[in-house]
Design goal:
By secondary structure, the chain is of the alpha/beta class. The protein is built from 8 helices and 7 strands; from the N terminus they run ααββαβαβαβαβαβα. The protein has a 7-stranded mixed sheet with strand order 1-7-6-2-5-3-4, sandwiched between helices. α1 runs antiparallel to α2, α2 crosses α3 and α5 runs parallel beside α6. The N and C termini lie far apart (35 Å).
Amino acid sequence: MIRTAIVAVFLTLYALLAGPPLILYTLVSRSPDLLYWAGTKGLVFILRVVGMRVRVEGQENIPPGVCLFAANHTSNVDAPAIVGAIPRRIAILARKSLFDIPIIGLAFRLANFVPVDRSNREAALASVKQALEYIKIGSSFLVYPEGTRSPDGHLLRFKKGSFAMAIEAGVPIVPVACSGAHRIMKKNSLVIHPGKVTVRFGLPIDVSGYTIENRDDLARRVHDAIAAQLPEDQRPVS
């Protein structure tokens, strides 16, 4: 729990001290770049301090221009690992409760992050539509097609919303396999363990041959691409 306390204290002080001036700068400049990179680097830094090491593979597979990064989700620490490995500013479809945190929630909104209420289907569809609008004006997104964190690290079945979004926007999907994060911080646990996370970017998948009607085929293709890059103990349970 000592590592968890260190992270909590650092992030609280970081948000209180750096958050307001960064938010003010963003409002004045109308550019969230500095806010985004300051937040990302700060989070990656403190997780490195408490023992998380990240290995990145396949960055050369990330295409230029707007794309959708689709990743597996096992832990609260896989997002910082993945975002820190992506060499460009992106936005995220994130859990709605995170946007209720003072300062953090406002920073997320200014960075074009989109809240998702998975318990409300209509609200979730509205979030997908909002993300689609951001994609059309140039924002790449990170999505978790499983819709929730895996309890044991194994890849779960995918939901369809993000694939319909990619098809409608006409942007490629980059499959991202994140392994090891569930050992650092398990689902529903506050304990942080030291360890290594590996982030692998697969070859981009062109969505131009897909329609909304066959989005299931696209979902299976991305699911298979992520599964193939995961270690045996994180692949789907047949």
